[in-house]
Automatic annotation (TrEMBL):
This is Single-stranded DNA-binding protein. It comes from Streptomyces variabilis. Residues 111-172 are annotated as: Disordered. It comes from the Bacteria. InterPro entries: NA-bd_OB-fold, Primosome_PriB/ssb, ssDNA-bd. Homotetramer. GO terms for molecular function: DNA binding. Residues 144-155 have a biased composition (Low complexity). Keywords: DNA-binding.
Amino acid sequence: MNETMVCVVGNVATRPVYRETVSGPSARFRIAVTARYWDREKNSWADGHTNFFTVWANRQLATNAAASLSVGEPVIVQGRLKVRTETREGQPDWMSADIDAVSVGHDLTRGTTAFRRAPRPESNAAPDRPEPTWETDPAPSPPVDGSATDGATAADSDDVAGELRPEAAMVT
């Protein structure tokens, strides 16, 4: 497709706004991108023009961005650039530059961060069923003293917490 993919490096300008929608989670925030240049006359770095972009994140990216980002933090945003023109408050040609984010992260050239893996969302799996018992009961052995019993064997009385002893599991 002919989409304009951009990578923008700047600072979070507004607190992320998180919403649960019918199509899934969505979050938006503004990013400020200021050009820096070397001013030869002053022999120092100077700030140029600041551009503001509205960043839109969806699904798991929205959830993670809302939980991770704060105003003023340096971030890198990669996504599709969308430029909109509207008439607003009687003013024609109001323009907005939005980024439909594919990836958002902290800019590690300007600080550190600690990554925490987000838990995967629960899928609509089958309800939990108890694990089947794969062990088989040993074949009942005849009573040692020859008397009739209620099915219990001498080997059964020696079992500890249901553990099978090798001699109790042997079939003769």
